[in-house]
Amino acid sequence: MNLPDYASAPMISQIAEMLDDGLIIADNNGMILSVNDAAVRLLGQNLVGKYIVDVVTHDDITRIFAHVAEGRIVQEVVYQPTDMVSTEFALRIKPLDDNMVALLFLDMTLQRNLENVRRDFVANVSHELRSPLTSLSGFIETMINGDVTDDAMKLRFLKIMDEESKRMTRLIDDLLSLSRVEVYEHIIPENEVSLLATINAVRDTLVGKAEARNMQIIVRDNRLDKAKPARILGSYDELTEVFVNLVENAVKYGFEGSHIVIELTEPMPGQLQIDVINQGEGIAKQHLSRITERFYRVDKARSRQIGGTGLGLAIVKHILNRHRGSMDVASVPGESTIFTVTLPLI
Ligand SMILES: Nc1ncnc2c1ncn2[C@@H]1O[C@H](COP(=O)(O)OP(=O)(O)OP(=O)(O)O)[C@@H](O)[C@H]1O
Ligand SMILES: [Mg+2]
Where is the PAS domain (predicted)? Predict the structure, then answer.
């Protein structure tokens, strides 16, 4: 940092207070002379007068500090405090004039987490695309080699190939949907949408899928004033996507022959609550907090088999964020699951 000549010591300490990164000034022996607020938040109170080795729990800190103080060189190390769960700092140590040393703690946790998320995401997408692709090219090769002569067999192969290519299309559509809602998440939609009409339309779309599993979809308007329109500011397409995902899940993961109930209530003035309730295997407690993560499926093999990519609830969550709404899930394993959506009414 090249400060102008007129930058006095009090001025520098005022600037240090603006930093989100912890800053410590120590003497050449490692005794702490001054700290900024961020360093106090990070390492605790009463730091002045203590020694660096006693507050920084890094195995090699004594050697590194001496190296900087004696060699007049800058060093940077990765520092993961033992008492702070999965937090990571870049600790930069720099010699100053007048036999002093500065230590700057740059919090890298968020950046590292984002990198992990990105890496996992790319790995997941590649994996999800690779399996249908491998299956497709296997079947194509078999057919090219002329190994399939029987017409019935040929048709069976083509049907599987059709299913696999549809799976890839679904995955790509979901990925595009997800990235679109992420981009526009900060913008509140402006159109007026009637939620009751949206939900009835969703029911009509999915009635066939439900019947195939011998299930019924029942919409119950339990608001006190049913004459009042259940209108919110929203995007019709996105809200449809929310309830298609939730009701489709209820159909997929519900017990065959059971009923799905979509219930509208107004728990407090200005708020609309929509519960999507199904009877089924449910979701064990340890999975509940994770099911809105991309690609998270409780039973990967089973969900894949019934055509799930694990992106549905991630899309739902982002759309609801955009609509300033929220979602909760409660489940009794072996019995039932309730997804509760809350949205602000106009
Ligand atoms: N009503 C439900 N009952 C039981 N489990 C559910 C229910 N809804 C969701 N889940 C679980 O949550 C997981 C994530 O759901 P999500 O909708 O994100 O993915 P998916 O349905 O597997 O795939 P996609 O929606 O992308 O086609 C599911 O794989 C399933 O394990
Ligand atoms: Mg789904």
Answer: 8-44
